[in-house]
Amino acid sequence: MRRPGYRQPLKQQLGGVKAMFIRLSVAVIVVVICMFLLMSAMSSSNSNSSSAEINIEALWGTAASDGWRASSAPRSDWPPPASESNGYLRVRCNGGLNQQRSAICNAVLAARIMNATLVLPELDANSFWHDDSGFQGIYDVEHFIKTLKYDVRIVESIPETRKNGKVKKIKAKQIRPPRDAPISWYTTEALKTMKEHGAIYLTPFSHRLAEEIDYPEYQRLRCRVNYHALRFKPHIVELSQSIVNKLRSQGHFMTIHLRFEMDMLAFAGCFDIFSPEEQKILKKYRQENFAEKRLVYDERRAIGKCPLTPEEVGLILRAMGFDNSTRIYLAAGELFGGERFMKPFRSMFPRLENHSTVDTTGELGKNTMGLLGSAVDYMVCLLSDIFMPTYDGPSNFANNLLGHRLYYGFRTTIRPDRKALAPIFIDREKGHTAGFDEAVRRAMLKTNFGGPHKRISPESFYTNSWPECFCKKSAVNPADKCPPHDVVEILNSQMESEGISDFEASGSNLTSAVDK
């Protein structure tokens, strides 16, 4: 036991003070860290709150390019078509206008791969469009052939041959190519048959060549076809331009591809919002046109598989900050369900137009549902300030336009993320309206508004041809460097050295591909 009055040695007293100081220091550090974390959280919250605002004025311009520009001209050795080909390639492009457009690009590439002479592609006069305009009725044939002269030989029909004084017609051997066929199929099976018969006829020819090809020059050829060679006939371009001029005479305008038509609703299996009679029509259409599949509306809706309704489109735009003075051009077929679905949208955005209301010539009134109407809608959507597809899943029209607008100078697109928006709309329908606009803005801010971005499956090459069909003047990666401005002269000299003299040495279209 310690005696009364016993005092600890000085060393022990100092040790106690030191321990107490350490404990106090730790406590202070903990308080400081907590304060820092609290302030960071508050700062982050404020930052998120302020970032949930969308600059509408900026959207009326183009998206940031980060120094990229469109360029589909060759960047490596690209020999001209050989003086002798391996035979003739015929294709029948099935589907609507934009599915056919992709098929034409694939046909040109297939001809290049096989060193074949391409016969002007046939456009299917399908049962949906009831339109037999054909390639010559929609596209500028002379421009198409001339633009691609450095890539493939193109003829309007297989020529007749004379042998022993008799006229002989080459009969193309018909083949059904596999879906998304690899290049190897064309260089083996297809080429072997072509050499045996002198010509092959590939039908149907929708999605019959793999999209992802690990050779950038082939992908750039697709872009040359899609964005330079495929030009609508002059009267279609003029009609489209007159509509755009009329719309733009009152300022900015937006185009919306309102995909709320019977075929898409039947495909998606989203029936429950319709009347029993309408559901019967949709189910019948699905049974006749699509594979049997168990589809539950609530499940489809919850994961964003249903097309947006016109009202939902209006709510998105209003939440983003667009007001009722916004001028909107609707590119759409006949909306299923009629005016009752359009009424809420029209009440929010009354300044609505379509090609029938702005066409002063009356030409479209005769061909509203045909290839002409689709071609005009395509051009107006391409040239608009903002384009918004409401269902860009299997929609060739929307997907091709997204890719074309990207190539055309990163023009603004609004692409609703239906999966992210679905729970927000479902909550609203349950009466939880507080914070709805904020939630929509947050979801939309996570989307891309038309700038360069990496292509990730299932995004199509025709939807996003970056980086293959784009370049930078000052690129770190040599593969991204823009081609020389004398590319046309280089290609012309190659053609001359090969002894190919039946091509006109023009090349203005490839120059535009370089200088885009």
TrEMBL record:
What is this protein identified as?
O-fucosyltransferase family protein
Q: Which GO terms describe its molecular function?
A: glycosyltransferase activity
Topology term for the membrane? Single-pass type II membrane protein
Q: Which residues cross the membrane?
A: 21-42
Q: Which PANTHER family match?
A: O-FUCOSYLTRANSFERASE 1, OS02G0726500 PROTEIN-RELATED
One Pfam family of this chain: O-FucT
Q: Which GO terms describe its biological process?
A: fucose metabolic process
